[in-house]
Specification:
Layout lengths: L6 E10 L2 E11 L4 E5 L6 H8 L7 E6 L2 E2 L12 E4 L11 H9 L7 H5 L6 H17 L15 H13 L5 E5 L7 H14 L4 E5 L3 H7 L2 E6 L2 E6 L1 H5 L2 H8 L10
Parallel strand pairs: 3-8, 3-9, 6-7, 7-8
Antiparallel strand pairs: 1-2, 1-4, 4-5, 9-10
The structure holds adenosine-5'-diphosphate and magnesium ion (MG).
């Protein structure tokens, strides 16, 4: 029903034994849109991201990328134009920032994963293209100066930027960010917020995050989950003012007035 969507989730249900982690969840993400997903602990946010990147197959419902169904598997993500950052940082300590980012591009380079890793490219042209793409991705996240540094020598915020560059280098149409604000200080949060808006000029993003101020400032729309169900969806301002959302965060009965 949303022909222009980069991502459409239709009535997705995921059960773990007797527990319904996602209950007929639907959402759509148009091009160049930042979709936030929030909700109390256990609401199903991580499960939703895991469905989007193929770690979990839904029991019911479907996920469409640019209007089409795909067999979404983690190793096929890059080919489908989807990239994800991990909850932590997940950089290889023995590789420089640039080399870490180059590894994110290997699925697009004909030389392949191992030759890139070992810096033994099948052709000098592949190697050069890979390097250029990685430098451009580092530049896009404001980390060009860190290209030659080893991750261990860099501050946490900079390591997160490099992890983001690694996700961006394959030029995804859809970027999935799992708790990008965790561990960042106030200055880094402001930078992250500017960076997310900047990325949205080209990509669509789905952001799972607890940090409300960040979500209010960067998201075009927010879907609120509680016990696996969508309890609200709309602009940040709309969901912020929704009594069901307040109730979910306070652990109160969203039905409110005592009706049962
Ligand atoms: N692999 C799993 N096996 C069983 N239950 C799970 C599994 N993953 C998540 N759950 C349960 O599903 C619900 C949603 O979890 P999760 O998606 O991690 O929530 P959130 O990320 O919003 O905190 C929780 O009740 C959680 O305990
Ligand atoms: Mg989670």
């Amino acid at each position: 029903m949303n022909p222009g969507s980069v991502l459409e989730v239709r009535d997705v249900t995921v059960r773990f034994g007797g527990l319904t982690a996602l209950d007929a969840v639907s959402l759509a993400v148009p091009p160049r849109h930042v979709k936030g997903v929030i909700g109390p602990n256990g609401a199903g946010k991580t499960t939703l991201l895991n469905v989007l990147c193929g770690f979990i197959r839904p029991d019911e419902g479907e996920v469409l990328l640019r209007g089409r169904r795909h067999d979404i598997r983690p190793h096929r993500l890059a080919g489908l134009g989807v990239a994800r950052t991990l909850q932590g940082v997940g950089l290889y300590q023995g590789l420089s920032a640039l080399e870490n980012v180059m590894m994110g591009a290997t699925s697009r380079a004909s030389a392949g994963f191992w030759s890139a890793l070992l810096a033994l490219p099948r052709s000098g042209r592949d190697e050069r293209r890979l390097r250029e793409a990685a430098v451009a991705a580092l530049d896009r996240v404001g980390a060009a100066d860190a290209a030659g540094a080893m991750p261990g020598a860099l501050p946490y915020g900079m390591r997160k930027r490099i992890a983001l560059a690694r996700a961006l280098v394959a030029k995804p149409a859809l970027l999935l960010l799992d708790e990008p604000a965790s561990g960042l200080d106030e200055a880094e949060l402001a930078e992250l917020s500017a960076l997310i808006r900047d990325l949205a000029a080209e990509e669509s993003l789905v952001v799972v995050e607890h940090h409300m101020d960040l979500m209010m400032s960067v998201c075009d729309s927010i879907t609120v989950l509680d016990f696996g169900k969508v309890i609200a969806s709309g602009t940040p301002r709309e969901v912020q003012g929704d009594p069901a959302v307040t109730a979910a965060y306070l652990g109160a009965d969203p039905g409110g007035s005592g009706a049962c």
